[in-house]
Amino acid sequence: MRNVLIFAELTFREARRRKILWVALALGLTFIALYAFGFYQIFVDFLRHSQGRNVLLDSGFNFLVMAGFYVISFLGVMLAVLTSVGTLSGEVSSHTIQALAARPVKRRAILLGKWLGLALMLVCYIALLGAGIIVATWAISGYVPPNTLTGVALIALQALIMLSVCILGGTRLSTIANGVVAFMLYGIAFVGGWIETIGSFAHNETAVDIGILSSLLVPSEAMWKMASYGMQPPAVRGLAVSPFSLATAPSTAMLVYAVVYTAALLVLAVYSLNRRDL
Fold first, then answer.
1. Which of 50, 134, 152, 172 makes a 20 to 30 Å CA pair with 178?
2. Is 44 left (phi over 0), alpha (psi -120 to 50) or beta?
3. pLDDT digits over 6-28, tens only?
4. pLDDT tens digits, residue range 94-122?
5. Helix, strand, coil: what percent of the chain each, to 5?
């Protein structure tokens, strides 16, 4: 366990030195600033054309909040892939992992340490941007969406799923191939999620089944849907008043599946790295 924590700390420090993290952080903070400015302008316009606070007004605020969190979800996934896609494959191809994996340090300590360090970075990044959205919205309008902590946690889990996909791929694939596979899997989950949403409103069982199958392949989009459903007021759920409206949310079983899925990917990654001839 001590070696895992050491590699986690080293990975976290390495991530801080990489330009991509600071670029992602700068873009995230820029997005928060633009969101706050745009939200303020819309808030003033809403108040000018409405008579006091009402459900319709809060629904409009919630739509803007969900749009903000959707961007955070996307940024989290992109950061997860771009920071981890070469963390193992790059060291394997350059043979630096041979020095790291010298006894008594085990390969699983290297892999789990790298995953833990990157996971900590992703959770901090998503939590920071999520807090920025919530604070900006509250400071301007006094509105706070429901279940925000749960929503942020689910968005973080979405990023951790893609992180685990890249860690597993890095044990066997080159950096470029690993990135292509990760983005394709995310794309399948993304499209499948929208097909399921549309099929749910249209009562098309085939479309719903396609979405469920894509969620079983990669449950990343299902975590976003759970977060989106939980952070919407009960009065607007299932009304199709915005692109983020859902007739139903993924079940608790899907959440359990996502956690088990992430753990299983790590177990497979450890097994794959141990079996690989370095």
1. 152
2. alpha
3. 778 877 777 777 777 888 889 99
4. 666 666 656 666 778 888 989 999 999 99
5. 80, 0, 20
